[in-house]
Amino acid sequence: MWMLVLGLGFLLQLAGVACALDAVLCGRTPQGTIAWCIGLLVLPLITIPFYLVFGARRFTGYVRARRRDRTALSRTGEACNVASSPWMVRPGPFPDLALDRLGLTAPTSGNVVELLVNGEATFERIFADLETATDYILIQFFIFRDDALGKRFEDAIRRASARGVQVYVLYDLVGTPRISRLVDALKACGAEVHAFGRKFWPITRYQLNFRNHRKVVVIDGRVAFIGGHNVGMEYLGQHKVLSPWRDTHMRIEGPAALACQLAFCEDWHWASKALPEVAWKTQPRRNAEEVPTASAEVLICPTGPVDELDTLTICFLSLLTRATRRIWIASPYFAPDDAILNALQMAALRGVDVHIIIPDKSDNLLVNLAALTYVEELQQAGVHFHKFGKGFMHQKVILADDLAAVGSANLDNRSLRINFEITGMVHDHKFVEEVRAMLEDDLRNSRELTPQEVKQRRWTARLVSRLARLLAPIL
What we know:
Endonuclease, Chain A; alpha/beta; single chain; 19 strands; about 45% helix; 3 domains; 15-stranded mixed β-sheet
């Protein structure tokens, strides 16, 4: 008996050593690597299961699917580039992001971009455009609830299918675990529906850690919606505790919609093992010549754990380091890595007007506690922090000089490295002014956190915040 226990203990320790070696070879940051190694070597029984779930740096299944059907995916990307090529701008107003190396599509001009503030404006615009679809509709959300809003989508999809429109619906299995009735109803309408995830056991590393956090709607390859809203009545201000719900989306009409379509096609390809039939239908029905006011230049940044580099971190850093006048940020989950933390400090120190809005009420207590530790560090450099007090703020917006970024990505490790996200960077005077006015209104509904208020918290509150920050990489 004792020999069996000793043998199992030896094998467990050996497994801990093997995982620690993997952490050393593949770790992203020294701090994270050291933390994993200590846990794996000292408490392997407890740490190994967590490492197997949270320790992965790359979503290998998605990468293998890309490699397996590289020709088909390349064909889709080339078709999008050919259709968008008349409106491509290089380098344009955007930072030098080495777009090809980062795997991003080129920015395009000839777009009409509309800012959509809060759920009512967002979903009314989406449903209005769904009624105009004549060829295909692509719908992707992290959360897709079977509630009144979900049923409105069901009705809209039923009508579209009856007109002969092809409809594809993709949802994340972690964000949306139970919608079997809605899925069956959508399939009965003629839509193709897939979950981004795996339902079988054992649970893979992806199942709990890698999540597709994108929110994308594409209509006929000419109109796209991206932003912070999911499908749920809480996004229309009907949350029992956190209402009113403050969020931001944007509507894009023009060639940039094809970049959103390409991101959807890659996600669909992994989830369904095939490309949607509409993958090569890439000619927008309205082009820049037909839309005289189409002047917005847009760069779509689909990012995730399959990227060779930390693409989203690089994109955000490029915005922060080039800004000379203002950096205004609204983020519901603020737990940045050291690179973004330092970039914000440097910007404030060189005289840039830096304001960051975080929610007062939050649906994630640990992230809210961890955020206060970053507040203290950034205030020392001159960054202004504001707590939004009119309900729960869920928008993800950055305004850096004359560039505005709206999308699904938060300023935390999960969005920067673990989740699949999509962000749109826009250079357009009218749109930027609308974002500025929106954020000014948000600032009026916020209160500024003073350094004295942050420093005078009880030592127990400061300790809890510091402990929460230790969990920031997996929150």
